[in-house]
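Entry 14. Structure prediction run on the chain below.
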Amino acid sequence: MLLNHPTIPKLQIGSLTLDLPVVQAALSGYSDWPMRTLARSFGAPYTICEVMLDHFVASLRDRERTRRFLMLTDADHPAGAQLMGADPAEFPEAARRLVKAGFDAIDINFGCPVKKVLGRCRGGFHLGQPETALEIVRRVRDTVPDHIPVTLKMRRGVDDSQGSRDKFFEILEGAFAGGITAVTVHGRTVEQRYIGPSDWEFLKEICSTWPDRTILGSGDLFCAEDCVRMIHETGVHGVTAARGSIGNPWIFGQCRELLAGRPLPPPPSVHDQRDALLQHFDFTDRVYPSGKAYRQMRKFGLRYADWHPHGGRVRADFIKVGSNESWLEVLDKWYRADQPGQYPENPGRPKPPAG
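Output returned:
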């Protein structure tokens, strides 16, 4: 007897057709070429590089120590590049540079809750100035070729005031009218940063207001179950896996199973974890300065350790590594013998305050 399983919904972002509505989010300090390439190999249909400042991109030279920022291989497509900045005039040259490098979409960051720099707004603070935000959208859309999607990353406002809410919708409506193809909305305000719950009801409201627009959700997606639940509960067309994807390249395959109506697969075994760690390390060693891959991999190791049956002790050893050799020694110590893995008890969630 054949069982009827749901069809996994596709995600359309302009000219990009993705076979899974769960993509690798842009993560500052994390979603570099190694993490994105690993995510693609584990089933992510689309990845977005870590956010880059517009003037940084425009001034990049083809040097060994900076080449990784614009690095793409044939296996990486489709991949998006995320831009953030203060001055609308600085966005076009950066966008041109990213398209020339081969990125398949340009994502404008109006979501990062960074502090204002020298009194200038950037990231999420642009949500408080619709005129400037929409000028950035217009300049980028006018600069890149028509077939390259331009998308936005937003939070639901600078704060919880009615004025902030009105400005959010002014920007969103104006951006769609200006030619953006999709928007990712994080359910927290800029002032919240990462404190307190993400407002999924706000996402539901947006999807109800613009049912024909491509809306992706973000915020409190710590595991595959969270990703699928957001899709089902809010009506978003897709989600961006952020903190829940750090040290968890398996999240995309897990989401694929759940969306197909199948049960969550068993957690990766210790040897499965080892293989992912070694692959991630190899990618990192290729693009970071010689002998320095451990610096980037150390923070990933802390999250990979959550899947290990002796996670606390593995994490303690990862914290102490000070060289590539000592990082590999931790793998040899804890990942040599195979055994069942475990699902993290609180995957990616902020630790509760002490006391």
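Residues 350-355 have pLDDT under 50 and may be disordered.
Filed with the rest of this week's runs.
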